[in-house]
Amino acid sequence: VQLVESGGGLVQPGGSLRLSCAASGFTFSRYSMTWYRQAPGKERELVATITSAGSSTNYADSVKDRFTISRDNAKNTVYLQMNSLKPEDTAVYYCNAHWYHSYWGQGTQVTVSS
To answer: N or C: which end of the chain has fewer CB within 10 A?
Structure first.
């Protein structure tokens, strides 16, 4: 089982990034997918989640209307489009697959700074 995040990096405030999480080793289309993040000295927090078929999504209030979660079950990949980024979005972003089991990726660093 593998979840591999990519797309993180350094971006200026107001900029955009698109994170990807490529899954393998399990039946991706049966799993809900969630993006979490963890900033230094803070607890891991839920950012956005999407159901297995992609029919329903949910967002943390802090990212609502700025971030969009989506998935492509044919490509076994979940995405997080992040717009209007703020310095407080700086964190390591993790993807998680959850259904019968729970799987985690290794994380990708997002830094929002001028």
So the answer is: C
Looking at residue 38, its pLDDT comes to 98
Strands of the 2-6 sheet, one edge to the other: 2-6, 17-24, 77-82, 67-72
The answer to whether the CB of 21 falls within 8 A of the CB of 77 is yes
Characterise 90 by phi-psi region: left (phi > 0), alpha (psi -120 to 50), beta (else): beta
Residues with Cβ within 8 Å of 108's Cβ and at least 6 positions away in sequence, in order, are 5, 6, 7, 8, 19, 92, 93
CB 95 within 8 A of CB 34: yes
Q: Which two tokens stand for residue 105?
A: 């990726």
Q: Dump pLDDT digits (tens) for 51-64.
A: 999 999 999 999 99
DSSP 54: S
Collect all residues with Cβ–Cβ distance below 8 Å to 11 and sequence separation of at least 6.
17, 85, 110, 111, 112
Q: State the average pLDDT for the chain.
A: 97
